[in-house]
Amino acid sequence: MMVDGPSAKHAQRTSGFRRVRDQRDLRPNVNPQPAGRRIDSDGNFLSPLRQLTTNLVDTYHICNPQFRYESTHNPRRVLTKPSKPVHNDGYDNEDYDYILYVNDWLGTEEGHKYLILDVLGQGTFGQVVKCQNMKTHEVVAVKVVKNKPAYFNQSMMEVTILELLNNQCDPNDEHHILRLHDSFIHRNHLCLVFELLSSNLYELIKQNQFQGLSTQLVKVFAAQLLDALTVLKEARLIHCDLKPENILLKSLSSPQIKVIDFGSACHERQTVYTYIQSRFYRSPEVLLGNPYTAAIDMWSLGCIVVELFLGLPLFPGTSEYNQITRIVDMLGMPPQYMLELGKQTNQFFDSYADMYGNKKYRLKSIEQYSREHNTQEQPGKQYFKHNTLPDIINNAPIHPYKSSSSRASSHEVDKEMANRASFIDFCMGLLNLNPLERWTPQQARGHPFITGEKWTGPWKVRPI
């Protein structure tokens, strides 16, 4: 055997290497643990690094048996922006928002106290923070309302409505309506304590790359929303701001949902506000300035279920004029009585006499509307290749995740197209321009798309 030569000499000079003869030479060398080193609850020896980091609290306790860790002693990270004290003896910022810190607390010594953990969201009404009930240790969401009379009064109405819904209309928490746990005043701010929920449906659409959900999953969500809206309808309440952001999953592991944010809700006899509903989900009667009823929530529901299926909003108006233009382009003109009653009709439509002397209306051109309102209206972006709702839904791609295999079989395609035919009919009942003919939640719940009955053709609504 040759032992001389450059490679052999190099091997002899290289320290730290040894010849591998069999598997025994591949076994690791495990150094014995130094004497006196602590072990954790799993029986593993702790390195000095771990004793001074992840196990620091135990290390302190060994050094001082009197030591007890309290999260309230942690540094307080500010959660509110801007955070400069301006109003309310320095407790509020310039926007009258309460300046919130991590590990600060909300509540009173006599009542419930809530330890602030993190911020969940911010809006015109105020802020929502994740908190822990210091008595029960339950983690909740707390809405901290701005220190302004208008927001305070509106939020007190929200408390009244939720107490009615939770205690009388849905005492067993069966109808997908947000639960209010507590309410109190903290340094002039009304605070509402809610159950903690998960992501909203807009975030779900976004996580799915705006490709839309299956008809089956849309049906599951629609059935729950109709259940909630039935309870509201029977209580003669209107949500007034139904949209994907106000529908939350209970958890990421289940399609169970809850309707939230009753801050704009009202009783059918108290429809005093005219500027309601988020624009994409705003009903024709509200756009035209007509009196409105709970039917406006059903219009919003129609917009939501189509958006869940397509992944994109059906009427993404850039202004009220653009909104009504999109609706008219897809669904046609509103009924004559709505145009004649509407306080805002003349903003968007011109009236003229036809050849028989009858009064008619036509939508103003973009140039005319811009000139009259001193704006620069732009044609809205077109998200869809087709113009009618049936064509848009039928031509949406059948994604692999909408069928059981990577390529849908002809049987699955036929089944999907039958589901879509039923879905189109369901949506058209919700998106009826005439609120007097638009389906109520009780009627819509009987549609084959919701019940799962075989689709045989246009559904005749049953009077309620």
Q: How do the strands and helices of this protein lay out in sequence?
A:
Blueprint: H1 6-13, H2 48-51, H3 56-63, E1 105-107, E2 113-123, E3 126-133, E4 139-145, H4 149-169, E5 180-186, E6 189-195, H5 201-207, H6 215-234, E7 237-238, E8 247-249, E9 257-259, E10 266-267, H7 284-288, H8 295-310, H9 320-331, H10 336-341, H11 345-348, E11 349-353, E12 359-363, H12 366-373, H13 389-394, H14 410-430, H15 441-444, H16 448-451
Antiparallel strand pairs: 1-2, 2-3, 3-4, 4-6, 5-6, 7-10, 8-9, 11-12
> What is the 3D shape?
globular
Which strand-content bin applies to the residues? Answer: 5-15%
* Count of domains: 2
Strand order of the largest sheet: 1-2-3-4-6-5
| Structure classification | alpha+beta
DSSP E strands, number: 12
CATH level-four homologous superfamily name of the largest domain: Transferase(Phosphotransferase) domain 1
Summarize the structure.
By secondary structure, this protein is an alpha+beta fold. Helices cover 33% and strands 14% of the residues. Strand 5 (180-186) and strand 6 form a beta hairpin.
